[in-house]
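Final report, results section. Input specification for complex C-07:
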Amino acid sequence: MAATEQARLAAELQVYALRKKEWLKGYPGRYVVIRGDQVLNFFPTFEAAYSAGAGAWGINTDFLVKQIVEHEPVFFVF
Amino acid sequence: MVTCRSPKPDPRSLLQHGPRIEVEIGPPIVRTSSGPLSPGFNPSGAGRFSKMPALIDTGAGRTVLTPEAVTRVGLRQVDVTRLARAGGINEDAGVYVAAIQFPRYKLATIEVANIICCELPEQPIQCLLGRDILSRWLFTYNGRTGEWTIDEEDIAAWIDPV
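Structure output:
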């Protein structure tokens, strides 16, 4: 992954990492939407979360949509 | 119920290239109470749908697009995930959001889909349709006749990551 891509959502990923433990108690399995240090809300589906983020900040804005899970998933591609 | 078939029975082609289907990848289609959101005009061509062949890949947990295709379409990154590939390669990969259309078939457009971005070395293809997309369909692979079919019921226009 390019460094610029990693840097793009770095602030949002840091917010997620800092608050993940707390959110796991209240919103396990939900999707959180974050832009900068602003947390929009928690949603039951990715589609609802992304649509809310795009509705709030526009489709051309970077924001993080992250499912709150204890162990980050690993996806296999063969 | 919609049933789609591979263009023509060809056991040799299916064996050599695998089940391929033409797709159009573009920015997600987001509907709000005031209408659909649009990425707007971009002179580079980003933000428009791009046509490409995709390989239906039961070995891919999620749908994959190459960095070149992601850049061409101008998709926005929404997450980072961990990816494990053949050969024991583990890497961080960007997660992007896109819409997927099937121009040659009457399959429903997927308006909001998660797509993982990674290189597909040694493959003449820029898109793998993974099991997240396959979860919408009944997919049949007939190696004897060289055909595949997709059956789709009326379902939602989005997919949730597994």
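The longest strand of chain B covers residues 89-101. Chain B has a mean pLDDT of 88. This concludes the modelling results for the funded period.
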